[in-house]
Amino acid sequence: MAAEVRRVSPPHCLSASSRLSFRSSFKRFSDLLMQPTSSSSWRKRLAYYFKHGDVLWWTLLTLSVGVVLVLVLWIAWQLWVQSAAARHAFGWQFIWPWAKPVWNPALDKFQAWPAIYGSLITAAIALVLAVPLAVGIAIFLSELAPEWLRAPLNYMVEMLAAIPSVVYGLWGIYVFLPLVVVPLGKALAPLGEIPGLGVFFRGPVPASGFSRLGAALVLVIMILPTIAAVSRDVLQAIPRSQREAALALGATRWETVWKVLLPYGQSGILGAIILGFGRAIGETMAVTMVIGNSAGGGYSILRPGYTMASIIANEFAEAVSEMHTAALIEIGLVLFVLTFLLNALARWLVVNKTIKRA
Amino acid sequence: MTQQPVALNRTDKPAAVASATKMVIRGVSVYYKTFRAIKNVDLPVYENRITAFIGPSGCGKSTLLRTLNRMNDLIPGARVEGKVLLDGEDIYAAGQDVVDIRRRVGMVFQRPNPFPMSVYDNVAFGLRLLGIRQKSILDEVVERSLRAAALWEHVCDNLNQSGMALSGGQQQRLCIARAIAVEPEVILMDEPTSALDPIATLTIEDLLQTLKENFTIVIVTHNMQQAARISDYTAFLSMDDDRAGYLVEFGPTVELFTNPKEKLTEDYITGRFG
User: Fold this and answer.
1) How far apart are CA A127 and CA B185, in angstroms?
2) ipTM score
3) Domains delineated in chain A
4) Most buried among A59, A190, A192, A195, using CB within 10 Å?
5) What is the pTM of this model?
6) Hey, what domains does chain B have and what are their CATH numbers?
7) Which segments of chain B have a pLDDT < 70?
């Protein structure tokens, strides 16, 4: 009996004598493999954990997930703590849209609404323009493109997503702003005469083209491939049977796409749009290079401005006073929370849509 | 399979009563790129009758079925030679509107494929494609179609439930309701019961007997008993040495199963191969 007990067994089994006696009644191959050893109990324990990969893997994978959790909480905590000075000094006034916009490092007076507005308006314009275009590209790539054209086009779209943002910024400054944004800004400027709505189009657009509009349009190009590529994957994942069902009922290709494929893939496409939005609101380099970096107020998209990301990137290195730093970090906190909320909202939308269907 | 006799169509009368020819497959060959999947099939499809395609796996039953409403057009590299006449008109002729053909020749697939929308919207889908918007017409046709598909009693108290929430057999009947809602002349069925349990299968088979009063039905099945039970005419296809499917024998189901003319047919229905 004692010899059997020495076999490497799960520690919690050692006391189960009834099982062991059952096992001792015949010779198993595992008995032959595991010769009785005189090793100490911790070695047995270790051998057990390594033999049963599950335990090891469970531990490793849990740790990896833990890293993500710790990082998120740590970042949030740091943003909260480091922004304390600004939070105490300015309170909610810091982010209120109707508070007086000031950004004066010399007087240590800060108010973040222009930057928040800059982020929201550039991301919103970018989404409004990019989504139809990107979904159109996705539909073409997935449903209409002839076989030989598909691979090169897919490659091009993915290529567009892989260009570093600083390159977009440079290209924006030297090519896109003068050739597209300046003429477009001039064309839009007359809209500034419209009462009410005109506040968004009050010119003039700077000769350099640096403006919220410029940033938004560069963002369009940057989020286009993300949304297009993910939407294309969503469309391609829709079972063929759905297309066949529609076509067999006498649907045209267009009707199949519009009435079957898009509704079927709506939650996935919404996910793609969220990804694009996340990229748009967080994009820093390219936006900093083309938005003009002005802390001035005003709502006009034709004027230079700031986004939350760009104001941090642009000023953090030069922030000397403690309050200036704290104000920038608080903007980081606002960006963090805003992104989190928008993601949560989008996720909620996705889940809701999906459940309704299932 | 042993040599037990296969149960024959309950009504046992169809062959005697003459019927108009709804569709004619004339000299049809189907190619996938260079591979020839079907060669030179000639076959009539009679109006208000059930025609079954049987044969071993890979002999091109489904391919042949899909030539009847040009579903093969969707597959890149697929090409059809020959003619398929619908009421005497070649559906592959230049200038034929494929959308219109598919409306006239509906289809039910192997796996139930309801759209992820409500039962009502599923059935109304085809009508809305036709531009029918009036609620009263939609309501009436939805109810009629669901009744014809023997599904009405199961869903009438909640037409807004998702079509995906139904059981497999109910989903397939929903697909049948959806197909008949647009009042096609011919309904093609590609192994419509192969994904269903025996009871759901029986329900669908019963349903086909009532549907054939109003529709012409062509059904592919790899279940010989099913073909014998439900069909009026049977086409037996087989695969040639070059893996191309061809028609071995076509005839009234009763004759084909009791008195096959070809040795190959006899071997197949008695279970000696396939």
Assistant:
1) 47
2) 0.86
3) 2-82 (no CATH), 93-355 (1.10.3720.10)
4) A192
5) 0.80
6) 21-113+185-269 (3.40.50.300)
7) 1-18, 274
